[in-house]
Amino acid sequence: MTGRRSWGPRLERGAERGAQRRVRPEPAGRAGRDAFVRALGRCHRWFVLTGAGCSTGSGIPDYRDESGGWKRPEPMHLSRFLGSEQARRRYWARSLLGWPVFSAARPGRAHRALRELERGGRVRALVTQNVDGLHSRAGSHGVIDLHGRNDRVLCTGCGAAMARDRFQGELVHRNPRFAHLEATPAPDGDADLGEVDFNRFEVPACPQCGGVVRPDVVFFGDAVPRARVEAALEALRGADMLLAVGTSLMVYSGYRFCREAEEREIPIFILNRGRTRADPIARGKLEADCGAVLEDIARAL
Prior knowledge:
Largest sheet: 6 strands, parallel
CATH topology of the largest domain: Rossmann fold
Number of domains: 2
């Protein structure tokens, strides 16, 4: 990753500067919104970084509360998925039930407003931490799916790819008893199943080589592909503002772009309900529904 070795000392200096000038969120009323929109309007080349708050309005649950803490147990870690057949059974059993709700989600107000802002020439780069593909389905172009897409699966052995819908058919065919269980939708196509015996759940192997199949997403403990990071950093270098939308930025893979923006003296603005990791280094912040505010911004600009 470009400049990775230099991020250590920069983190410390940035933290000291941020502690001295913590951002005060604009009030969520009309006056606060108008001030936030005016501040954004003074910038013309936006780098937008989005998170789960953009998709909650589409019916996809998020992971964190307004303080940035977990609402539920941490997601699956890569080492556990690869190292435990039982963990894979549990993962895919839950995913079998969560996928229908996840795949039926449609772009919401935030996705559509960002598409319009792109068409108007403001949004020059859109990087999302979400794996739902809703920005692309809304019509945004050149989206960088930082953490991958959940609509495809990959073989960890031969690299063969398969549409998630096709893999879903295999899961249902082999596990009809599980397909009729009731579950509560959870983030990223997961589902809460409670106390269920997963020992008899059958996970299809790769049809090409018999290898382990995984979703084409970045698990916790996994690395974001270098090409995606480089493409996002290159886009950020040409921006005059970073706008973080619907994300707590608690995960470093997204937060790194805020650090890079601070180093380059690119102003950071945040639209998010609740605390974010980048609050100390932001130029401005509005705590409000991101879909409604983005619509306001698209109309005004």
